[in-house]
Amino acid sequence: MASYTDELVDFDVALEKYDPVLGFEVHVELNTKTKMFSSAPNVFGDTPNTNVTPVCLGLPGVLPVVNKTAVEYAIMIGLALNCKIAETCGFARKNYFYPDTPKNFQTSQYDDPIAYDGWIDIELEDGEVFRVEIERAHMEEDAGKLTHMGGATGRIQGADYSLVDYNRSGVPLVEIVTKTIEGAGKRAPELAKAYVAAIREIVKALDVSDAKMERGNVRCDANVSLMPKGAEKFGTRTETKNVNSLRAVEHAVRFEIERHAAVLNSGAAIVQETRHWHEDTRTTTSGRPKSDADDYRYFPEPDLVPVVTTPEWIEELRARLPEPPAERRKRLQADWGYSDAEFRDVVNAGVTEAIEETIAAGTSAAVARKWWMGEIARLAKNADVEILDLGVEPATIVELNSLIEGKKINDKIARQVLEFVVAGEGTPTEVVEKRSLAVVNDDSALGAAVDAAMEAMPDVVAKVKGGKLQAIGALMGPVMKATRGQADAGRVREIVLEKLGIEG
Ligand SMILES: Nc1ncnc2c1ncn2[C@@H]1O[C@H](COP(=O)(O)OP(=O)(O)OP(=O)(O)O)[C@@H](O)[C@H]1O
Ligand SMILES: [Mg+2]
Ligand SMILES: [Mg+2]
Asked: What EC numbers are recorded for this enzyme (predicted)?
């Protein structure tokens, strides 16, 4: 048994002595209507054990059938990752015993993955583009979901009993495996996060997965090892399983680097094993030992025919690929004329599509950003929800903007109108009507308010008469008050000048 230490070495100190090597296995759940090898529905969140057929339960005598759409999605993922696509490939049985796998094997691919030898470019914060090479992307099926109940910690070892939901059993997966990644140095945690974010972005853009990490649609196993600087041979890796958020991927890699360094510094050896990630303590704990040649007793699946891909089919699928997300982002930023910081904020706020739709519906890029990143973001923050969860439609922004441009309301009132729209009071135009919020620019109403203000402030009037036109500003307060903020300021100024017989 290996010796462990709870000690950690400071990250920067660790990296003075060691070079990290990384490798990622990302499982992507496909959003096909049915499962990988059966007609059971592939739906998240249904009552446990309702979306199951004898095939996903592995009952005796059943025969699997490959889901063609799942194969197409796997090919599309391969193409998006610049992989070669196999002309023929088959499935294999990966044998292991665990209650989440009723067949006692997982149908996967072994030495002939559908896609192999690819790469993606990852842009790091320092602007450097880091190329991550893809070893393979292969098809397989998901296991059922175990929920560990009771016990002191609620974790596997501490649980009193476990529940299993086979709805997830047989859901189509694509596992994307990177080659070993060297040279990231201190940027290893950042690269880990950026890599998984890029994969998520790609499968989302392809629309082959719901890509929600919190639902487990995209799950990352992070392999980490350290080798002394200058060494040629890689160190022993650990594999932290099922890291399910971008932040967690970053933290898990960082933690393992700090932990490996401490173990190595103490003179002990790293044990090749799986590790569990704990979000609450931001630490990993030991899972099960795992050798490279883990004896899964892989053998070809006898019940499935090989998958044959024709060049025509592949080209047809290639034609379905969307613009690569990274290129799309560059194009949008250039089209919209946003600074790097402005664009980054928009991306981080998750409103890129909303802004795109708002512009398409008829506003300038500047106006779209002003609303989404300004007032809408503020309302979302106050309500403690995501911006998109407020449910503001691009059409609402276009309507508000045209009300402003048509001088029907001013900016300040427009912000109030938006609040009422968000509260469900109707469209901007309806709110303006219902609440009588339109700008007051008819001269009789404004004239009376101006008269009252001038009468109340004779000294201001004297200054204006004396040529200090900027003193008119002082009259604006009472006029706005009299019109509940709805006066057309430009028209007020004109009326004052008219009344005093001054040429504007
Ligand atoms: N010394 C190492 N340090 C860091 N990463 C490594 C090292 N050796 C291999 N890796 C990476 O670990 C990952 C191994 O994934 P792979 O799916 O091939 O095998 P596995 O983890 O043994 O099997 P399984 O799919 O059953 O988990 C790859 O991304 C590989 O590049
Ligand atoms: Mg693995
Ligand atoms: Mg793997």
From this structure: 6.3.5.-
